Amino acid sequence: MRTLGVFELTGCGGCALNIIFLYNKLFDVIQLYKIKEFHMASSYREEGSLDVALVSGSVSTQRDLEILRRARENSRFLIAIGTCATHGNMQSSLEGSMEEKLERIYGTRDNYMGALNSKPIVEYVKVDFAIPGCPYDKDELYQALILLAKGVEPVYKDYPVCVECKLNEYECVLVKRGIPCLGPLTVGGCNAICLRSGIGCIGCRGPLPKGVNPAGEARILKELGYDDEYIRNKYKTFSGGGLKW
Ligand code: SF4
Ligand code: SF4
Ligand code: SF4
Q: Which residue, by CA, sits nearest to atom 5 of ligand 1?
């Protein structure tokens, strides 16, 4: 039987909870994997090597960094789950020095919790596979775990949300209704679920690493009447501040 560990860094906890929300499918997972560590689900913990490590959350404290390094050292295949882990998410887009941030939020420059400037995990360790989303699509994780148990590596989605939007024949809310939509810049894989309800994509799966045109989208948004501040805030929400034009 293969072995699995789940590691939680700084985030809302939703991405770890999403594993429990696999419900019946979780029984398939535990038939294929022995779970040696999963803090949210159990106090049981077993030391030793892992076939697969799932890491959620961003590195925002010294403790996060230690947990991440332990997960990497002990695992053969490490998957970043959720946009905090893959892109840094909103906590990584906070600007200013650590002292300024501590003072602004806690009223003191005292860094008693060992806070670090928040970053996605790929900034510190090699990541073998990434499933972005806030939270990620749990079926994507399920499929990846089943494939890995069969010895097959899952394939990273490297196309924008627009591709799935068009395959589903949804109306383009950006072009037809002037609604801001970050689909052209955002990693696909969610089956354009927001567009199914006519809601513009807010970019929760983070930006594609290449082949996108943030300046082009900013130009369209400006033509629709949105100002620089609106676009800047929209771009930085999930990207960890990495999406600029
Ligand atoms: S990616 Fe979203 S859902 Fe997941 S831990 Fe971060 S904030 Fe929570
Ligand atoms: S609605 Fe958004 S995701 Fe769909 S095609 Fe238009 S820009 Fe792309
Ligand atoms: S459409 Fe955009 S905001 Fe909605 S789930 Fe997909 S990536 Fe996230």
A: 11
Task: Select from 83, 173, 187, 201 the residue to mutate for testing ligand 3; criterion: most ligand atoms less than 8 Å from CB.
Answer: 201
Q: Tell whether 166 and 145 lie within a shared domain.
A: no
In a domain? residue 244: no
Number of domains into which the chain is organized? 2
Give the mutation target among 179, 204, 208 for probing the ligand 3 site: most ligand atoms within 8 A of CB. 204
Q: What is the dihedral of CA 84, 65, 35, 80, to 10 degrees?
A: 30
How do residues 17-66 score in pLDDT, each as one tens digit? 999 999 999 999 999 999 999 999 999 999 999 999 999 999 999 999 99
Show the tokens assigned to 227. Answer: 């100002």
The verdict on pTM exceeding 0.70 is yes
Please say which residue of 114, 149, 184 terminates a domain.
149
Angle at 108 between CA 11 and CA 60, to 5 degrees: 25
| Nearest atom of ligand 2 to the alpha carbon of 184 | 8
Same domain, 178 and 109: no
Cα–Cα distance for residue pair 89/93, rounded to 1 Å: 7
Q: Is 73 contained in some domain?
A: yes
Q: What is the CATH number of the domain that holds 140?
A: 3.40.50.700
